[in-house]
Amino acid sequence: MSKRKVAIVTGAAGGIGQEIARRLADDGFHIVISDTEGQRQALNALADTLFQDSEPPHVAPADVRYPASVDSMVSSAVDRFGRVDVMVANAGVVTASPLLELSVDEWDQVMAVNARGTLLCYQAAARQMIRQGKGGKIIGAASVAAHQSSALVGHYSASKFAIRSLTQAAALEWARHGITVNAYSPGLVDTAMWDALDEQITSLEGLERGDAFKAGMSEIPLGRVQRPQDVAGMVSFLASADADYMTGQAVVIDGGMLLG
């Protein structure tokens, strides 16, 4: 069996997740890429670009809202590569809505994917890592919204605050097993998800499409939009031995928008 470490990346069909998978593949990990079943074609296309020494990544679709689906994803990774060393719980969704108009269904949808989905990925990965007895690294997708909320995305911010809190608790509980738990907190990232959010926000506020994106850009001291590769670089660090003494942190990587 290969000694190469194994990393699972959820939400890998596009955007930040895709770049995380690429970066960890470049770092030498066996890669397990996951997203919903409806994204299988995109996952397969990504897999075709990530061959390592003739060893293709493993495609394991899952719906992170459901325990059985997440457990199956992790079991599939173990069946393929024999172990799990890194879990990147990257899957997430965002919508814009004023709190007075926010429906229970919209709240539940965002919370189910972001907060519950992250919990389930953390749990499934930790159980496998504990069985293996060699520790591991669990990494979650927080956001600058996990540190400071914004109008129109209060429900999204709440879900990301939950991930930040969950990350701290998991770090404390699982440290004795040699498992570190950290999160990354991106800012305004140039992805299709942000394009869709911009469209929703500008529609709600009666602005021109793209205005919300421009407003966010004006708050970035480094003066450029964040790329998915910027986030992937941070995840690469968190997954590496260089981060072995780091746990319970939600690292802001946003070009200087928030200063802590």
Automatic annotation (TrEMBL):
Signal peptide limits: none
A GO molecular-function annotation: oxidoreductase activity, acting on the CH-OH group of donors, NAD or NADP as acceptor
Superkingdom to which the source organism belongs: Bacteria
Single GO biological process annotation from the record: fatty acid biosynthetic process
Pfam families: adh_short_C2 (PF13561)
InterPro entries: NAD(P)-bd_dom_sf (IPR036291), Sc_DH/Rdtase_CS (IPR020904), SDR_fam (IPR002347)
Family that this chain belongs to: Belongs to the short-chain dehydrogenases/reductases (SDR) family.
Protein's name in the database: SDR family oxidoreductase
Organism: Natronospirillum operosum
